[in-house]
Design brief:
The chain has 225 residues and is of the alpha+beta class. Helix content is 44%, strand content 18%.
Length: 225
């Protein structure tokens, strides 16, 4: 049986097809923004393994407010930061995680949460559309994303296109700002320590499920020992 495509192979195939149909000016803005982020991101500020995570609260679209202590109650915690419900790449990545990551994390007693700054009433769409079987939560005001050092702002060309398209990102997310999180995967153990962190300034590159699963397995093996 043929092996399933990796997440990043799937995303690269999507982008190759989209590049054939996207207007050249829009494609250039997209490519330039991603290149700028890769070149200028302050990686020294990124969340990293060994960091201690202080208390925080997220608002899940169905369950409401959830604290860090609640999320860690049954085992380790995996946070997947994504941009917003209408993001085309997020609409590939999150269902992929639901299929290739969620079941193994449940077996390992680990809570999985998709996190976006988008307000709950707008964020619900992506959970319902794909019938995602993990938590989808709002990071109000990008508070946690800012603490983790993973935020970026639209560059001038992206802002202009966003306004011209009558969809400024602050209205799309409901935050009123130009800030979004870079795609990020974080694994936190029950002591509140980050055991794995992967931040991608290029939103077309996402953490593979196998890397997250390996990090969780290392925690469970340490606990068992």
């Amino acid at each position: 049986m043929a092996q399933a495509q990796s997440l990043n192979q799937t995303l690269a195939k999507f982008q190759a097809k989209r590049a054939l149909t996207m207007p050249a000016d829009r494609l250039k803005i997209n490519v330039d923004q991603r290149r700028l982020l890769v070149e200028t991101a302050d990686r020294s500020a990124f969340v990293k393994a060994g960091d201690t995570v202080g208390p925080f609260e997220l608002t899940e679209v169905d369950a409401g407010p959830l604290s860090l202590s609640e999320l860690l109650k049954n085992g380790p915690l995996v946070l997947i930061f994504f941009r917003f419900a209408g993001c085309p790449v997020c609409n590939i990545a999150l269902p992929y995680y639901s299929q290739h990551l969620g079941p193994e994390l449940r077996r390992l007693g680990t809570t999985l949460v998709g996190v976006s700054p988008q307000v709950p009433q707008k964020l619900r769409d992506i959970k319902d559309r794909h019938q995602l079987d993990f938590l989808i939560a709002t990071d109000a005001g990008n508070s946690l994303g800012r603490r983790f050092g993973i935020l970026y702002s639209f560059d001038e060309a992206s802002r202009r296109l966003s306004v011209e398209s009558r969809s400024p990102i602050g209205e799309v997310t409901g935050t009123g700002t130009w800030e979004l999180p870079m795609p990020t995967a974080i694994v936190i153990d029950q002591a509140g320590t980050v055991r794995f962190a992967d931040v991608s300034p290029d939103w077309l590159v996402r953490t593979e499920p196998a890397d997250i699963i390996a990090a969780v397995q290392a925690i469970t093996a340490r606990t068992a020992a």
